[in-house]
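Teaching assistant's notes for section 4

Start the section by putting this record on the projector. Ask students to predict, before seeing the second block, whether Membrane-bound transcription factor site-1 protease-like will look compact or extended. Collect guesses on the board.
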Amino acid sequence: ITSALHANMLWDMGHKGAGVRVAIFDTGLSETHPHFKKVKERSDWTNEKTLDDVNPNSNALASVLIVVVVVVTRRLLSFSGGMLQELPGGYGRLKPDIVTYGSAVRGSNTQGGCRSLSGTSVASPVVAGVVALLYSAVAGRRAAGVVNPASMKQALMASARRLPGINMFEQGHGKLDLVRAYQVLSSYQPRAAPRR
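Reveal the predicted structure now:
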């Protein structure tokens, strides 16, 4: 996934997720897994008997996010989330905002090693990892108050690439493009004047 996203272009500039913390809420995370050496804290939110992963997907999904951060969907698949129109309470917005890879993504296996996963649950940590990497790459603009959750979302949507032959109701603004998102954020200017 990192090569498909061209994450190496940001890594080569020295951006590797430094100074950014991510949290993963799932069914557990192995404390002794070789892929999770920098986990700062594990907390029990479920009253399970162990903090280790009892569902093989948790380690895999966590590793997808962590790999995109630390080491950092041309057609839509049948399991894609598809269109959601947020009515009546969602102001009629159309979702998804963007689409990204979610098929045959490599992640950590429960006992070590890797396995391949597919699904919308894989696409989510891909986007989260990209956001964390971008957030670390624009630290100066972050400190200036230019980069925030709203501007990050705008940059992801503005930089997405349209997939040919797929309508906006299925792909939103298009496929996530990490490098273009970085370029947008590097020169991003707020579209509304700040309150004084």
